[in-house]
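Human: I would love a firmer grasp of how sequence relates to backbone shape in proteins. Take your time, and here it is.
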Amino acid sequence: MKSTFDDTKPIFQQIADMIADDIVDGLLEEGEQIPSTTELSKFYQINRATAQKGLAILVDAGLVYKQRGVGMFVADNAKETLLTERKKDFYKQYVQPMLDEANRIHLTKEEIIHFIKEDSDD
């Protein structure tokens, strides 16, 4: 877990994002227990309610589940769900604007592929 926050978005969202990143990166596996609100609040020196709000985002998205009296755990298919969501976001945020600009300047698909292959040869 990283220990600093930035000012670009609310801390509770950053908590949710960090745990989601850990799931995507394989640091948290399906069925594995995630840090508790108490652990998060102590580690990051934040209010427990802030940590709880971040975890609630993950619960609402079906990425983690609560086991009463035990804690919260990574849900089945959480990694696949996150990867699918992030691939869609990647397309919208990076690929579609690139294709729009390529069309604007009359780049062919072959030229775009050439650029990508040329860059990956480094």
